[in-house]
Structures are given as structure tokens and as C-alpha cells.
Design brief:
This protein has a single domain, classed as YVTN repeat-like/Quinoprotein amine dehydrogenase (Methylamine Dehydrogenase, Chain H, 7 Propeller), CATH 2.130.10. The protein has one helix and 28 strands. A hairpin with a 2-residue loop joins strand 8 and strand 9.
């Protein structure tokens, strides 16, 4: 466990531990998640208790894990190279593998017992996790960087041909058919979020807010944007160039605050006003208070860029 390393930046160890004890109590009282997974450019994934930040399991992987996806509380899917490794989050044991992609995977999401993945090989694939078989695949002629399930019958996939075409595809989850193409982004797509009112696409160039019928409402926060996360209703956090954290109001596109901060990955722990931040340069993971700007170190075991943080 890494409790000995937990500290608030700029404060003494005793005060840091006191603040962390208070933080643990607040988390136990409020958080709705049970586990948090963190991956980096290292060849392992750390699984934490989402309420106490205690390290539960360290899963050794076959290569760096750029993205990850919880299937349920006890199961996690880890894209490594062209294969998907499914592990038990309690023991770290590998349960099975899914093979079919021909190149490095970047994108992954799931809905119930179906897993969706996107790869450098230009394909989006759907997998049945019960039969462990591929259901369908679609060649989009783009490197697929992000996938997001937006409803039981629709997913969004964002890709690029590494030149001038950056496209978001609306796909039918039943067969992978393309229902719509969206070409408003002018650079790589890094994230897609779904709120009660909006669909939000985050590109290296800008953020676009859409209604549920994909009518553009507004765009804001000119890039480069590396990662993003909803904080609470109406507030959105973004990593600007990996060195600045911006907090934005998605309802009107106004910037609430910006501060210099090493930010590689972002995740919302389910507590209003808080963020989990994985650094770009030092491989550290912090609990961050958006209002006071206090940072509590959760994990310092990874020394390379944090790539993905997910909760369940």
C-alpha cells in the first residue's frame, strides 16, 4: 500500500496524513464507486479501493496499457497491443483473451456483456463477453482513437487518417453500420462524454457541445487538449497541452479557472468539486480539490505518463 507516500503538496507529512484521513472519511461517506483502475506507460495496472485509495491489486501486463475498461466490479479489459486481456480485479489473474485486431488498440468501451474496441488497424469491433467471440467489425478507414457507448443501440467512434480528415462516426451497435458522419473537428479526437442534456466531443483542436440529435450548440476551449472529464453537472475539466488544468462551464462555454498543473489523465470520482489527476511527466496520481486546489498524492509507484483512470 502507498499510504506512507500520501501527502498534500507543500505541507508537512503530519498535516498531510491528517488531511488524508479526513479525505478518506469524506470519500467513504459520499463516493458511489467501489474500485479505481490506473494505467500508465508502464507494463502494469493498479487497482485501488475507490473509497480508501488502498492498493488492492497490481496486474502485470504484456505491454503498456493506453486505455482500459471495467466490465464489472470483478473484471477489467486491458488492450495490450492487438489483443484484449481480461483480468480478475481481485486476484489480478488473466481470465481470457480476445484476438482479432491487427494493430495497437487505443479505444475501448462496454455496455452490459458487449465490449467495443477501436484500433490503429482502422476497425471498430464488437465482442460478446459471454461467448468470448467477435460479433462484428467495421472498417472505417481511420485510426480509431476513441469509442463511447451513448445508448444501448448507438456508439460513437472518432478517428483520423493522419492527414486532414478527422471524423466522428455514429454506429449501430447491432451490426456496426454507419448511421452518420460528423466532420466538424479539425484535429485528433481524444474524448467523448454523454450528459443528461449533451453529447460532448473533445478534440486536440476544441470542444464541441451537441444536443442529442447532433446539432452543434457551441464550441470552446481551443486546443491543444490532451484529456478531459466531467466534474459535476455543468463543469468540465481539461488538460491543456498537458501542463495546464482548465475548468469550463459547458452550458455557456465560459472558462471558470485555469492553473498551471502537470495533467496527463483525468477522472471524476463521483464527488462534486473533486478530480483524480494522473500526471503527464512524473507518473503520479492525485486527488485534487477544484475549489481549494489542494492535491493529495494517492500513488507514486508509476514513473511514466499516466494514460487512463477509470472507476466502477
Amino acid at each position: 500500500m502507498y499510504f506512507g507516500d500520501l501527502r498534500v503538496v507543500g505541507l508537512s507529512d503530519d498535516l498531510s496524513l491528517s488531511l488524508f484521513s479526513n479525505l478518506q472519511k469524506k470519500i467513504r461517506d459520499k463516493v458511489r464507486f467501489t474500485k479505481m483502475a490506473v494505467s500508465s506507460m508502464e507494463s502494469w495496472v493498479n487497482i485501488f479501493d475507490a473509497r480508501t485509495y488502498e492498493l488492492l491489486t497490481k496486474i502485470t501486463t504484456h505491454s503498456k496499457v493506453i486505455n482500459l475498461q471495467f466490465i464489472d466490479e470483478n473484471t477489467i479489459a486491458l488492450p495490450c497491443g492487438s489483443s484484449i486481456y481480461v483480468h480478475n480485479t481481485n486476484t489480478g489473474a488473466e481470465l481470457f483473451r480476445l484476438n482479432g485486431h491487427k494493430d495497437q488498440m487505443f479505444a475501448i468501451d462496454s455496455c452490459r456483456t458487449t465490449l467495443y474496441t477501436g484500433s490503429h488497424d482502422h476497425s471498430v469491433r464488437a465482442w460478446d463477453l459471454q461467448t468470448r467471440k467477435e460479433i462484428w467489425y467495421t472498417d472505417l478507414e481511420r485510426i480509431i482513437y476513441v469509442i463511447k457507448v451513448i445508448s444501448s443501440d448507438r456508439i460513437l467512434a472518432g478517428g483520423s487518417n493522419q492527414s486532414t480528415h478527422y471524423t466522428v462516426y455514429l454506429l449501430d451497435t447491432r451490426n456496426g453500420d454507419i448511421e452518420r458522419r460528423i466532420d466538424q473537428h479539425a484535429n485528433l479526437l481524444y474524448g467523448i462524454s454523454v450528459t443528461r442534456e449533451y453529447i460532448i466531443t473533445v478534440g486536440f483542436d476544441k470542444v464541441i457541445v451537441w444536443d442529442k440529435n447532433f446539432k452543434e450548440i457551441r464550441n470552446f476551449a481551443q486546443g491543444p487538449i490532451f484529456s478531459s472529464s466531467e466534474i459535476e453537472d455543468g463543469m468540465y475539466a481539461m488538460s491543456h497541452n498537458g501542463s495546464e488544468l482548465g475548468i469550463w462551464n459547458i452550458h455557456n462555454g465560459a472558462c471558470i479557472s485555469r492553473c498551471l498543473l502537470d495533467v496527463g489523465a483525468l477522472a471524476y470520482p463521483g464527488i462534486p468539486g473533486r478530480l483524480i489527476i494522473g500526471t503527464m511527466n512524473t507518473g503520479e496520481v492525485f486527488d485534487y480539490n477544484v475549489h481549494t486546489k489542494e492535491r493529495v498524492l494517492i500513488d507514486g509507484s508509476m514513473k511514466k505518463q499516466i494514460r487512463s483512470i477509470k472507476f466502477i
